[in-house]
Design a protein that fits this description.
Elements lengths: L10 E6 L4 E6 L7 E3 L7 E3 L6 E3 L13 H4 L11 H5 L3
Length: about 90
């Protein structure tokens, strides 16, 4: 029977074995879990920047260490950080 893990995996894309097969391995301590690339989409992972969980999409598979959408789009900044003067400028 397969071992059951009770945490959200923190995936990282690595080359595995002599054939350098691309797999997504959990980098949490004492976790031997890994998935082949086609199986990762739709799985929950921990963000490498903020540590919050998110769902892996095709866009996240482009990175070796995937980050959540909030951390990838941090330059745009959330709407709450806009200043009132900037919001009222065009009115």
């Amino acid at each position: 029977m397969a071992k059951r893990y009770f945490h959200i995996h923190k995936y990282k894309r690595i080359e595995w074995g002599d054939n350098k097969t691309l797999v997504w391995r959990c980098m949490m301590e004492n976790c031997a879990h890994y998935l082949h690339e086609p199986m990762v989409e739709g799985k929950r992972s921990v963000c490498w920047k903020c540590g919050k969980p998110f769902i892996m999409t095709k866009a996240h598979l482009m990175r070796v260490k995937p980050k959540c959408d909030a951390c990838v789009n941090y330059k745009a900044g959330p709407i709450g950080e806009l200043k009132l003067d900037e919001l009222l400028k065009g009115i």
